[in-house]
């Protein structure tokens, strides 16, 4: 049967080419048309494979060259050609070889006044031109001149012909040679006039397709440099900007507006950033340091066409594509274990970091957990809340003020009869929301100022007896706290010290594990490259999570388009742009100006602060530039700065114009954070998500090619608007919830003082000194032995290790909030925490990159290096924190105490939820399409157990986002090196989204510090359940854990209820 069909089709095609009988040709064309219309694309492709395209083209050429062409044959033949040609990738080349291009052009010229014949010719030309080389040949043969005879100014006649001609022209202009020809012959000006004419007359929008095709012609011409120059010279920017203004809010005009935006952005003249240098304003000299090389260059050609950038839906697929591109498929590399780089003598230094293995614990039996040092911790009892992080109760929905928990539980309810697991996590299958206890305490002022504020003449009298709601003191002055404000050697004015002392007396503190006096003391020891002398008020005064969660911002349609049009207006109407520099690290004298009354005041010279320059462009709009990482020319993402002198209820627009990443979660519901001093004075000391009309897009700035060694890299704009609630407030804006190095050191100090040392072994040591001279903390947490008997000491020393690290990337402050939750839970009185301490020894390095955090870096150390790419061969001189962390891990491995789990806490800017990256050889090879001989190679799948557990117990966790692939580009990261070299099967990176969740109980909500701390505590629960599922788990441990966790078979499994 198949052979009959094959021979039948071939006979038809052969007869079609050889026959001169017109009636026979018409009949064959009718049969072929019916065959193809009745079937699917499969029939068309089959016909193509049998030479159908060539037969039809040859028939076209032969029929057209007859003295009197028969259009009863040509028209159905062309319709058939178009149908076949749209599915034949080589159709244009075949038409060129068979001379069908010339024939079709001749037919078109002969039929300029015959609409039906002409439109068929135009359809054929459009299919021929779909191949760029064929389109270029049509341009050489005069196709564009022909089309411009057909395309006329606005008319309601022959609109089908005009539409077809504009579509053909748009396809032809995809060829750069045709675009150059159009520029040289002045066609661009004609296209602009046609666009204006159709745009102005088509009031009822009946001919959007014609207008769209004309714009596509302009878009393709402006793909080349000469086209852009001609477009600018013809006032094209002004024309398109003006003609589209009245359609900006009209969704039905999206097809037009999206192309206009692409043309305008492409033709906006590129320029360098308004900075003195691309390098960081701060530099640090390191012995033997390397000069930071040029960053990864994004060629301008790669971004020539912006494409459709009006995406309104979130897409998290890009990260997976990036991972799949560089999978490690070399089995030797995946399984090899490099030789130890540490000598036996060098390894001995790490014995002092594991005192729990050698200590006799005699003197600790009499140490009280309430002992305090007197001088350093002045006022510690009065201003410190020692409340440990409560068992998280998972606000599973959008908690509104006044809501009550369905279960009647409060955050600090310790008398609940529910199993601790229920308090820790309401399972994802339920929709119940357990609401947090409302904040009852009131917090005092915010902090921080600059040298201008140091000499400020505004010194209002403090009336400490006045009403709390309307504090009479100068907000700006109250927010000025210097590191030595309360120290005996202070050289600051007594007035500032007295002011803050009275403020502290007026407001009670309710921030767990925070004390402003301790913070000031610790800050004196923090060493920064610029030598910061001022404290940011939120860091000094403390943050308490707001009582309700915040939803992700719903992006309004057309917001990005409107913002881009406002940017383009600067070029078109430069007289309306102020371009007034109001803050600049490069121009420090600007900080001393006092006459700038009609602008905001900015400041960022405090720990973790980052703002390099602020330019007022309109009355309520500012361009902001972020400082690059120290000793770098890149990594502009983290920002944290103070702003003051604002007017209430006015929309201020902020544009961060030197961002680097191609996309951001700011396009998908994420908001920056803000802390208001006046709100804090009124008892609401919260970092909250703020901002509206938020979008993130590529701008016209390019980094100077001399700075990066090649073409300038692209920059992106983050724009957001903020309406401040109070006049003359002092507010802080940040990329994410800040968490400083001094906050960590304060936190650790207060944690240590809060624990019961008879039950909790809490050892705070120094892992090493950083390049900047700051101690990198190492914390050990476990349970104290019941006594110093040999049996109890042996029991302690046999406990397995868990190693947790965080904050190797300074800008990922969410990792520190997760770590905060982990630390507070581990030392708490919760029974689960107690069982964890009795079961494990926790080695925790809460901040691997203190210098980066202190100096406001986003990713690097003071050498300009990404420390999470230095794990293969770290240097004690250049990467001391990585070197000694790896050395400690090697030491544990060498004494037979390889950690059960290694986890590195991170933050993620491209994806939502919390998830883990792990390591699997088989999954990597399978994903890469490599065959795996399972009879020779086996792999323990235990690396998947912890993610499965967390998916059940942690509301923010999403196992669907987890990945266990080993990429070449990640070979030098902590996760891969610890897995490969130390032999830790369960070696992970835990990523927490800057944005929020798109699944589970927190779906649609942004991550707050409460959710992040909860994740840190829940991670500990996951470790407990992981131990329950291990083969080495004792029956006593099973009994204890099962009693605490309750009868949760969905988590524990049947085997544990024995």
UniProtKB/TrEMBL annotation:
PROSITE patterns documented for this protein: PEPTIDASE_M14 (PS52035)
**Which ranges are annotated Acidic residues under compositional bias?**
299-328
Annotated Peptidase M14 domain ranges read: 737-1027
Pfam families the record matches: Pepdidase_M14_N, Peptidase_M14, TPR_CCP1_N
Q: Which CDD domains match?
A: M14_Nna1
Task: Decide whether keyword Hydrolase is in the record.
Answer: yes
Q: What is its main location?
A: cytoplasm
Q: Which cofactor does it need?
A: Zn(2+)
EC numbers, comma separated: 3.4.17.24
Q: Does the keyword Cytoplasm apply?
A: yes
GO biological process per UniProt: proteolysis
Q: Which controlled-vocabulary keywords does the entry list?
A: Carboxypeptidase, Cytoplasm, Hydrolase, Metal-binding, Metalloprotease, Protease, Zinc
Protein's UniProt name:
tubulin-glutamate carboxypeptidase
Organism of this sequence? Monodelphis domestica
Organism ancestry: Eukaryota, Metazoa, Chordata, Craniata, Vertebrata
């Amino acid at each position: 049967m198949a052979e009959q069909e094959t021979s039948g089709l071939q006979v038809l095609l052969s007869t079609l080419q050889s026959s001169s009988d017109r009636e026979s040709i018409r009949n064959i064309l009718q049969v072929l048309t019916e065959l193809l219309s009745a079937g699917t694309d499969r029939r068309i492709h089959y016909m193509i494979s049998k030479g159908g395209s060539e037969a039809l083209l040859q028939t076209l050429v032969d029929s057209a060259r007859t003295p009197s062409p028969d259009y009863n044959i040509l028209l159905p033949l062309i319709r058939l050609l178009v149908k076949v040609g749209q599915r034949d990738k080589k159709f244009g080349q075949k038409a060129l070889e068979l001379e069908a291009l010339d024939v079709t052009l001749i037919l078109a010229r002969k039929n300029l006044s015959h609409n039906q014949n002409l439109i068929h010719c135009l359809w054929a030309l459009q299919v021929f031109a779909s191949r760029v080389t064929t389109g270029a040949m049509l341009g050489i043969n005069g196709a564009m001149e022909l089309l411009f005879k057909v395309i006329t100014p606005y008319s309601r006649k022959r609109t089908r012909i005009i539409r077809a001609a504009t579509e053909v022209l748009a396809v032809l202009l995809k060829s750069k040679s045709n675009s150059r020809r159009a520029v040289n012959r002045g066609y661009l000006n004609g296209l602009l006039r046609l666009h204006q004419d159709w745009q102005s007359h088509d009031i009822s929008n009946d001919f959007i397709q014609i207008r769209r095709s004309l714009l596509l012609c302009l878009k393709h011409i402006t793909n080349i440099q000469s086209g852009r120059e001609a477009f600018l010279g013809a006032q094209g920017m002004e024309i398109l900007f003006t003609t589209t203004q009245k359609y900006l809010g009209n969704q039905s005009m999206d097809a037009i507006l999206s192309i206009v935006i692409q043309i305008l952005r492409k033709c906006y003249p590129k320029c360098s950033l308004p900075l003195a240098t691309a390098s960081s304003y701060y530099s640090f000299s390191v012995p033997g340091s390397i000069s930071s090389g040029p960053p990864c260059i994004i060629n301008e050609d790669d971004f020539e066409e912006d494409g459709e950038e009006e995406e309104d839906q979130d897409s998290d697929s890009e990260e997976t594509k990036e991972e799949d591109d560089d999978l490690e498929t070399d089995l030797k590399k995946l399984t090899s274990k490099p030789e130890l780089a540490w000598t036996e003598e060098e390894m001995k230094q790490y014995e002092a970091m594991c005192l729990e293995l050698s200590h006799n614990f005699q003197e600790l039996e009499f140490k009280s957990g309430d002992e305090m040092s007197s001088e350093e911790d002045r006022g510690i009892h009065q201003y410190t809340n020692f409340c440990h992080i409560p068992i998280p109760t998972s606000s599973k929905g959008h908690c509104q003020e006044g809501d009550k928990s369905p279960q009647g539980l409060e955050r600090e309810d310790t008398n609940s009869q529910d199993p601790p697991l229920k308090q820790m996590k309401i399972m994802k299958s339920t929709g119940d929301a357990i609401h947090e206890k409302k904040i009852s305490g009131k917090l005092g002022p915010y902090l921080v100022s600059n040298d201008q504020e140091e000499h400020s003449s505004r010194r209002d009298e403090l009336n400490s007896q006045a009403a709390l709601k309307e504090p009479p003191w100068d907000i700006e002055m109250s927010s000025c706290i210097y590191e030595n404000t309360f120290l005996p050697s202070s050289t600051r004015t007594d007035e500032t010290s007295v002011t803050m002392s009275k403020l502290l007396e007026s407001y009670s503190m309710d921030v767990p594990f925070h004390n402003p006096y301790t913070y000031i003391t610790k800050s004196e020891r923090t060493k920064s490259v610029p030598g910061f002398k001022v404290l940011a008020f939120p860091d000094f005064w403390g943050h308490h999570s707001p009582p309700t969660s915040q939803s992700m911002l719903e992006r309004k349609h057309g917001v990005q388009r409107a913002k881009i049009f406002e940017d383009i207006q600067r070029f078109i109407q430069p007289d309306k742009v102020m371009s007034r520099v109001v803050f600049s690290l490069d121009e420090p004298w600007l900080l001393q100006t006092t006459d700038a009354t009609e602008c905001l005041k900015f400041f960022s010279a405090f720990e973790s602060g980052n703002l390099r320059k602020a330019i007022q462009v309109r009355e309520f709009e500012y361009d902001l530039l972020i400082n690059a990482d120290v000793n770098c020319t890149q990594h502009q993402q983290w920002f944290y700065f103070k702003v003051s002198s604002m007017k209430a209820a006015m929309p201020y627009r902020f544009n961060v114009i030197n961002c680097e990443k191609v996309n951001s979660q700011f396009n998908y519901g994420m908001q920056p954070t803000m802390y208001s001093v006046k709100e804090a004075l009124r008892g609401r000391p919260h970092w909250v998500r703020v901002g509206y009309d938020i979008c993130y897009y590529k701008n016209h700035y390019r980094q100077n090619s001399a700075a990066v060694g090649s073409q300038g890299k692209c920059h992106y704009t983050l724009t957001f608007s903020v309406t401040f609630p109070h006049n003359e407030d002092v507010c802080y804006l940040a990329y994410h919830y800040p968490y400083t190095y001094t906050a960590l050191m304060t936190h650790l100090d207060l944690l240590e003082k809060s624990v019961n040392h008879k039950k909790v072994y809490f050892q705070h040591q120094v892992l090493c000194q950083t390049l900047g001279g700051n101690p990198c903390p190492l914390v050990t947490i476990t349970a104290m032995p019941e006594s110093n008997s040999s049996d109890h000491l042996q029991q302690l020393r046999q406990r397995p290790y868990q190693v947790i690290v965080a904050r190797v990337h300074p800008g990922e402050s969410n990792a520190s909030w997760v770590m905060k939750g982990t630390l507070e839970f581990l030392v708490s009185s919760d029974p689960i925490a107690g069982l964890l301490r009795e079961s494990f020894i926790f080695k925790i390095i809460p901040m691997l990159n203190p210098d980066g955090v202190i100096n406001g870096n986003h990713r690097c150390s003071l050498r300009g290096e990404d420390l999470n790419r230095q794990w293969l061969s770290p240097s004690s001189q250049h990467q001391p924190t990585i070197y000694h962390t790896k050395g400690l891990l090697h030491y544990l491995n060498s004494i037979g105490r390889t950690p059960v789990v290694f986890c590195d806490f991170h933050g993620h800017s491209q994806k939502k939820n919390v998830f883990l990256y792990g390591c699997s050889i088989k999954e990597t090879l399978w994903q890469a399409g490599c065959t795996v001989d399972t009879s020779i190679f086996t792999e323990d799948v235990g690396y998947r157990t912890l993610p499965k557990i967390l998916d059940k117990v942690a509301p923010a966790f999403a196992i669907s986002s987890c990945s266990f692939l080993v990429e070449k580009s990640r070979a030098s990261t902590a996760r891969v090196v610890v897995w490969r070299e130390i032999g830790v099967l369960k070696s992970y990176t835990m990523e927490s989204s800057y944005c929020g969740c798109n699944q589970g109980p927190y779906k649609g909500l942004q991550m707050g510090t409460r959710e992040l701390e909860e994740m840190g505590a829940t991670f500990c629960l996951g470790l407990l359940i992981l131990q329950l599922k291990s083969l080495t788990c004792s029956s006593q441990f099973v009994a204890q854990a099962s009693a605490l966790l309750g009868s949760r078979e969905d988590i524990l499994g049947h085997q544990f209820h024995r």
